[in-house]
Structure formats: C-alpha cells, structure tokens
Amino acid sequence: MDPMPNHSHGFSPVPGDERCGKLGLSTKTKVCLGITILGVVLVVVTTAVVRVLWPQAPKHKEWKGMGSTPHFSEIVLGRCYTYTQVLRPELRHKDCHKIGKAFMNAFLSKDPCGSTEQDYQPLMELTNQSVPCHKTVLWSKSSELAHQYTGILRDMFTLEDTLLGYIADSLTWCGDESSSEMNYESCPHWKKDCRNNTVSVFRDTIYHIQKENACGVVQVVLNGSISNTFDKSSILGRVEIHNLNPLRVPVLQAWVMHNLDGAHNHSCSSLSINDLKLILNRRNITFTCQDDYWPIKLLQCVKSPEHALCSSPA
Known about the structure:
Helices cover 44% and strands 9% of the residues. It is α/β, with parallel strands linked by helices.
C-alpha cells in the first residue's frame, strides 16, 4: 500500500483549489486598486471644492513701506469709544461703528497709490468736530512737547487731540485693488513708491479740513534746537499754513522752544523763522514769535527742575 500523502512535503492542491487561490488574489488586488483610485478621486474633488468655496486670497503687491498696523479695525473702534465716551463725553452721540466702517471703506479694495480726498469724505463727515477759536495748536518737530502742553490745557487742541486725529494717530493702513483684505505685509512709502498713498492723502485731507476750520489766534510750537526749525517741505510748511483762512485766522503765534541741553540753532530772529513770517505776511496773516514760551518751558523743567535754565524768568 502506498504511504499516506504528506501535505507538508510538496503535496499539490487540487486544480480547483489553485483556481480559488488565484481568484482570491485577483479580488484583493482589485479592491486595493479601487480604494486607491477612490482616494485619489476624493482628494482631487475635495481640493477643487475647497478652491471654489474658499479661494486663496491673491498675493498683495509688495511696497517699500511698513504694512498695516495689526488689529487695525479693533484699534480704530476702541479709540473711538475711548475718545467719545471717556475723554470727550460731549461727543457720545458719534456712531463709532459707522465711523469704523467708513474708515475701512475709504481704502479697502482700492489702489493704495490712487487715494483721493473723496475716499475719506464720508469719514470726515461722521467725525466732524468744531474746535473753539484761539484753541488750535500746530507743531513741527516738537510733537512730544506740544502734546504735553495740550494734555494739561485740555481746552487746547493739536490735530491728534481731535476725534479723527486721536483715532488715526501713529497707525498705518492700506489695501489692494485685487483683494478685500488689508495688506499687513507692506504699504506704499510716500517717497519711494507714491505720494497719493492711503495714509498721506488722509493726512493732507484732515490737515486741510482742520486748518480751514481754525479761527482766532493759532499757536505753533517749533523746535529751535534743530537745523530746520521751519521746513517748507514739512506738513506745516507744505499744507497747514497754506490752509489757514486769513478771514478767520488773523494771527499766527509761534513759540520757538529749545531743548534744555540742546543747541540754540534758531530763534525768532533767525532767517528760517523769517521765511515763515514772509509766507504768512503774503497771506495777510500777522506773525508773532516768542522764544522759549515760559508755560511750555515749565513742562521741560518738570523733568530737570535743578537745571540752570529752569529758574523763574525775571
């Protein structure tokens, strides 16, 4: 009798078993291939749907200036409420939400090098504010000192002490005509890119409106310790003094201040200050000038009360 077959030593399966093995391998392969194809299709379809529903924002143009201030809209809204509800409660009727929206609409989805005064007109109307006569204070190269002065005399106003000036002070902003979003990466530089950029046009517009509305004697704080005490290309020399209405502003009074330990490069009798006087005289505005106006010098002396220049004037 032949020995019993040993399945562990080369026993061949029946033909039917071989065919089943091949069929099983083929089915698995098909299933795996089908799953792979289905996965690829799902990825392609999902990517297409995402691109349709959430298209990538177009890349902003690159400029030479710094980008928009982070959290710009939140800062604008917060400053508006602080000013109208705390600092100047007489302006509580101002609608800060409308003001914030008008500010954003002035530049979003627009060419940042094609700004116009008309873009900001709705914002100007919403923030309109009257400053009493004889209470306007201009400044050039003397920001800190001028604002210390108006910070104590609350009835005196620099541009930054008005509602819109307070809201926009030190902020940067711009958009892009190909996007509805702000450009936080870069904004046009007024010298290196274009002069009609969103911030420069805003500043010229607000200076124009404020100085047009100024009345009575207007004061200006100048820095006599620098070489260009009066600079014709500055905001003061280029915009502010030319927007003063001679029928409403009969006198411009200058205070030329010097740093306690700084140089005395210019005084009321300097040629630089005389240039300012000539411009004003041509515009029929009387010019007066005083070196180191004592009430403002007292603010300098608060930090250095023992300084030799801080003794009481005769």
